[in-house]
Amino acid sequence: MGRIRTAAAALAGGGTGTVFALLAAIFIAVAFTNPGFFEGPSLMAFLKQAAPLVILAAGQYFVIVSGNFDLSVGALVGAQVVIAARLIDGEESRTLPVMGVMLLFGLAVGLVNGLVTTALKVQSFITTLGMMLVLTGAIRLWTGGAPTGSLSEAFRGPGRRGIDDVPLIGQIPWAVLIMIGVGAAAIWLMRTRFGRVLVASGDNELAAELSGGRVDTVRTVAFVLSGLSATVAGVLIGGYAGVSAQVGQGMEFTVITAVVLGGVVLGGGRGAVVAAMAGALTIEALFALFNQMALPSTIRPAAQGLIIIAAVAYAAKRRTRRPVAATATTNANPS
Amino acid sequence: MQTTRLALASAAAVGLLLAVGCTTDEIPEAETTEEATASTEEEWFVQADYEEQLAQRDIEPEGDPTTPWLQAIEPEWVDTSEYAVDGGDHTVCFSNASVSNPWRVTGWITMQQQVEVLQEAGEIGEFLHSDAADDDEKQISDIQAFIDSGECDALLISPSTTATLTPAVEAACESGIPVVVFDRGVNTDCAVTFIHPIGGYAFGADAAEFLVDNLEPGSTVLALRILPGVDVLEHRWAAAQEIFADSELEILGNEFTGGDAAEIKNIVTQYLQRGEVDGIWMDAGDGAVAAIEAFEDAGQPYPVMTGEDELSFMRKWKETGMTALAPVYSNFQWRTPVLAATMILNGEQVPKEWVLPQEPITEAELDDYLERNEDMPSLHYAKFGGEDLPGFPDAWRDR
What we know:
The complex is a heterodimer of chains A (335) and B (399). In chain A, 74% of the residues lie in helices and 3% in strands. Chain A contains 14 helices and two strands. Chain A has helices at residues 2-12, 16-33, 40-65, 73-88, 95-118, 124-143, 153-160, 174-191, 193-203, 205-210, 215-241, 251-261, 273-292, 300-332; strands at 162-166, 170-173. Chain A starts with a helix and ends with a helix. Residues 323-335 of chain A have low confidence and may be disordered. In chain B, 54% of the residues are buried. The termini of chain B are far apart. Residues 1-41 of chain B have low confidence and may be disordered. Chain B has three domains: 2-56, no CATH class; 68-197 and 331-358 and 383-397, Rossmann fold (3-Layer(aba) Sandwich); 200-325, Response regulator (Rossmann fold, 3-Layer(aba) Sandwich), CATH 3.40.50.2300. Helix content of chain B is 43%, strand content 15%. Chains A and B meet through α3, α11 and α13 of A and α4, β8, α9 and α10 of B.
């Protein structure tokens, strides 16, 4: 009985639970407006298009939980797609080497973000805002304003294709498998010593350092992981939809919203990576629901904003209430 | 100072609230207000402009059809002898709104190539340009800086927005140098010439009429749009709404995509999950290929579709053999302003409002345009009109 109550409280309650409750509510609403949504093929199509944001959310989680921001991911996704198109230029044989270049570039951008933030003590908001502008500007300079070249078929595979002819489901997209792989790796990583130090450094930097955690190192690694996630997301988005000048625009805000919606506290120290990824899925589900409801596109941003503020406010309210209760209990039993 | 500011503010307010289109010169203000307040849905719709543009599509333009950038529809020639300057090597200045989309990038390359030709011919000496990066304030100060420098023999302006830039253009006219406005318009006719293709209504109507003609009554159409609130794009949609209203097509929705391919693919995929989509109408071709791929990935038959003369769309059209049309917002208009400037400085007549031809590319012309643009990259516009310039094809290919 008690366990059921705890589970119910966790689901409806603050922090991590809220996002799953919201996700379930949105899915139920989607099911009512369009029962066909949960049939194999259309569910897979939904997960395929959600995969890049979910992967970005995992990367952003590492940075946010350690007490920083990464505003450069949207620009990095865009840059990666444009770089890929320009370097590959339709040649199949260049696919793997160019993916290697993208990987190095993504890691390098993350490393610079991390080192500038930790070693030079520049606030991450400023570091990554600067990086966002540098990337956008450099790409504009390099391409003269509009991307050139084209992606190879092999490059587009992971984002666009999958394992065909699966009974009931139809096609299992590679993107979904990659998303599951990234998710599993992120969960595993948070269970290691690295994960614990990362959360601790977001919660209380000094305490983490005094207890032997290498705060600067884990924070830098968090930025590198974010750069890596943006690279993977870039490969998937480029594969999914091809090149356009607007790829990645505004994604940094969508992904930070997703992570916060997942109950991860800005400023760090609290939240689970699974919930951050569920936050991304929730946002994508919300887009899908709006579309199913045929809501006029002019109202959507406002509706989306209201739902997100309400969800985060609800979670925050639950969170602030709990420590008060805990203190009260402690006072009552001064043993 | 106070009055200037007041004028500026009220001009901006009029623009924002009434959202007057780009060619409001001939229409009395009161009439526009009535149109705008009649219905918020149709605030971007001016019946007279709409009818004029639809009629202009059928008028044979004056001039040589092999150089469409010098053709003009029903021109009213004006005398420019007052601006004639002896000798050559004139300094021409250009205030550009931005090069923030592939259409503008393509046009800007064409303009520079045209300038090089005129420089070699000794018509133009120096060509100064500034890029406002879509910032009204920046463009206002760019224009002022050109006026103050006193170096410009002629000033070309591609305004970023209509109402806000009007006072700046007026100031340029008052300085006495000949002003050429092109692409988007302003609420003044003080410029020596205003150059533009027929316009957004014609673009949107071409596309909508094609869908009406090629789809069975009762078919479903999805409209994909870039952004709300941009006059050239709103006019396209307003015209399409007029045409669709008189048809038996069912409009499933109109969605804003920001021109982002991933967003377009998401939206189209979601519509396909809900039911059949028989036709796609787009207000600009950006990301059109992603929309087509959404049909492929969902295993659905290709829609009847209208995109733009952007090459990746045209190549996909050819490859799939789908029923499609490429409406055109004539990119070759970027050549005209520099040519107009040299004509004015030589005291030759130019049309007061220089309306360039604007014809969609049909299936019959598809192969021809693909062949002509064979070496060109994606995100290049088929009717860029620079094939005869000496920099062709390298300047456009290696952008």
